[in-house]
Design brief:
The chain is α+β, with helices and mostly antiparallel strands. The chain has 1 helix and 2 strands; from the N terminus they run H-E-E. The protein has a two-stranded antiparallel sheet. It starts with a helix and ends in an 8-residue tail after the last strand.
Length: 86
């Protein structure tokens, strides 16, 4: 009997303590009265040149260049000014 009284008490507390505003005409969407500030987007330009230092070509499809070919390797990234970045 005691467990049912606790469940009822917790249920009443949950129902009475919450205050939410629901949007009219839409099922269960909670809306807020505060506005989100609109910020200007941040734009970045990323430009680099990649050069293979070592490269392996595996011709796993039809002989010659085909869709199934694999090119694996490692290299260096350089920015526009010729500075190594990676």
């Amino acid at each position: 009997m005691m467990i049912w009284m606790r469940i009822a008490l917790v249920t009443v507390l949950i129902i009475s303590s919450g205050s939410a505003t629901y949007a009219s005409g839409q099922p269960s969407y909670i809306i807020s009265s505060s506005k989100v500030p609109q910020l200007n987007p941040i734009k970045y330009e990323i430009a680099f040149v990649s050069r293979f230092d070592s490269r392996i070509v595996v011709d796993s499809g039809a002989p010659g260049p085909s869709v199934d070919d694999v090119i694996a390797g490692s290299g260096t990234l350089w920015d526009k000014k010729g500075v190594q970045v990676g």
